[in-house]
Amino acid sequence: MTIFFNPIFCCFSFDKAAFFSISTCYNYLKLLGIKREKLKHRRKNHKKGLRASAPLEMLHMDISIFKTINNAKVYLYVICDNFSRCILGYKVSTKYDVGLVVENIREVKQNYTLLKNTQLIVDNGVENRTHLLNDFLDTMHLHKIIAQLHIVESNSMVESIFRQLKYYHIYPKQFETATDFINEINAIIDEQSNRPLHVLHGLTPLEVLHGQLPDKHILQNNIALSRVLRLDVNRKSNCATC
């Protein structure tokens, strides 16, 4: 193929007895069935992460640090469900405390009926390698799995929830102090739990946690119906210039 784009041979044959243009060259290539080889998949195939088949089958736990405008640190301890992406329990504090991790797990265990084989996915942080946490999990009959140590997958599920909390709720509000953050965290978590997610095909995390199953066909039908209703409303309403 490179010879056809060579400035010496793009218009003349090797003995310069015949002339042909680039477009003629492409026509002959098409007739001869000569094509450039292309990769079947140009886009990167992303590996599918951890996916539970039912609510409360697999939990994720992590800690994230937020900073307010006055540079105060706020620690947010979160436990979320893998299947529904719903935040099951959370604690907020201005200091790092392993006891809050244990207390958060205890409250989740009390508020929800966990399965016998419920897995708790954590990272390899210091708070997840203490004897206090290990002994407590043994009494709760929870199977702790350290991401990228016991399994290949990461703890990205809860990390994505932290990103959503930051960019949809926390950063736009620009909290001045840690007290302002703590006073608003309940409303933020409630808003996140009731926000429709595309990955759940339009359902909210709470709806999926309480038994509704995501169905992409229902979402597509609802979008089509909303479009028809929107067009009907627009046709009936006239602007001032019409």
Structure in a nutshell:
The protein has about 240 residues and is an alpha/beta fold.
Could you explain the architecture of this structure?
This protein has about 240 residues and is of the alpha/beta class. It contains seven helices and five strands, in the order αβββαβαβαααα. It has two domains: about 1-30, no CATH class; about 60-210, Ribonuclease H-like superfamily/Ribonuclease H (Nucleotidyltransferase, domain 5), CATH 3.30.420. It has helices at about 20-30, 100-110, 130-140, 155-175, 180-195, 205-210, 215-235, and strands at about 60-65, 75-80, 85-95, 120, 145. Strands 3-2-1-4-5 form a five-stranded mixed sheet, with helices on both faces. The radius of gyration is 28 Å and the shape is extended. The relative contact order is 0.11.
Cα gyration radius (Å): 28 Å
Give the overall average pLDDT: 85
Number of structural domains? 2
CATH topology of the largest domain, which one? Nucleotidyltransferase, domain 5
User: Which sheet architecture does the biggest sheet show?
Assistant: 5 strands, mixed
Please tell me the CATH architecture of the largest domain by its name: 2-Layer Sandwich
* Parts with pLDDT < 50 across at least 5 consecutive residues: none
Gap between N and C termini, in Å?
A: 60 Å
Going by helix content, strand content and strand pairing, the class is alpha/beta
Total count of helical runs of at least 4 residues: 7
State the helical fraction. Answer: 25-40%
Report the count of strand segments.
5
Q: What's the arrangement of strands in the largest beta sheet? A: 3-2-1-4-5
CATH class type of the largest domain: Alpha Beta
Order of H and E elements: HEEEHEHEHHHH
